[in-house]
Each structure stands twice: as C-alpha cells, then as structure tokens.
Amino acid sequence: QVQLVESGGGLVEAGGSLRLSCAASGDTLSSYNMGWSRQTPGKEREFVAVSTRSETRYYGDSVKARFMCTRDNAKNTVYLQMNNLRPEDTAVYYCAADRHFGTSVGSLFRKGSYENWGQGTQITVSS
Fold first, then answer.
1. Burial class, 29, CB count within 10 angstroms (exposed 0-12 / middle 13-18 / buried 19+)
2. Helix, strand, coil proportions of the chain in percent (round to 5)?
3. 45-81 in b/e burial notation, b at 16+ Cβ within 10 A?
C-alpha cells in the first residue's frame, strides 16, 4: 500500500506561487491515478486536479490555467504547481492515490475513489 506525504504548504500573498509535493513510498506512483483536493472548514472537499496513470491531467474549473499537476516517476513524486494564487485558494491540500483501473474521470473528482491519502498541507493566501 502506498504512503503519501505532502509538503510545500505555507503563507503566500495573492498573485504568488507555490509548489506542493506529494512523495510516495511503499509502491510506485506510476501505478496510480493521483488526485489533489482541498478543504476548508464547513465546505465540501473540492478536487482541483487529477493525473491519471497515463498522465492525462484534468483540472477543476476554479483552478484551470492557474494550477498544473506533474509527476516525476524517478522521484516517485507528484507535484501541484499553483500560480496566481487567490485568497479563495486558502485551504488544506491533500494528495490521494487510486489504484483501480477503469475509474472514470468524473469519479476521479470524488473522494470515494481514493484509497490512500496524505496528511494534508495548509495553504494560506493573504489579500
């Protein structure tokens, strides 16, 4: 079973950039669909980016053209590059892994599709 550890969170001013890392151990990430989601208190978890095991990427409407998800299979790590950050991007960000084949793209934007989760990392964007 893969273990995931996020890093790279912090405080940034609006308009700034951050890159989150999700490092895996116990298995190779190339075998998994990967998702990045975020959550703020009182709100539903929102998936912002998905990278399939074939490295096709999909993004939520709220982050399109600002966030980019990439993989480095040699480092067994997935990244979320976040540009032009806005105060509404403030949240705890999580990476997650789905080992199933045939998961639909729509399902990859839902929490229940993932078996393995990182601990989360806080992003705070000041205005």
1. buried
2. 10, 50, 45
3. ebbbbbbbbeeeebbbeebeebbbbebeeeebbbbbe
pLDDT digits (tens, 9 = 90+) for 22-52: 999 999 999 999 999 999 999 999 999 999 9
Quote the CA–CA distance of 92 and 28 in Å, as a whole number: 25
> Strands 121-126 and 10-13: what pairing?
parallel
Report residue 122 as tokens.
């806080």
3-state class of 30 per DSSP?
helix
Which of 25, 36, 22, 23 has its CA nearest to residue 2? 25
The tokens for 64 are: 């399109």
Return d(Cα 26, Cα 4) in angstroms, integer: 9
Summarised one tens digit per residue, pLDDT across range 74-126 is 999 999 999 999 999 999 999 999 999 989 999 999 999 999 999 999 999 99
**Cβ-based neighbours of 42, under 8 Å, separated by 6 or more:** none
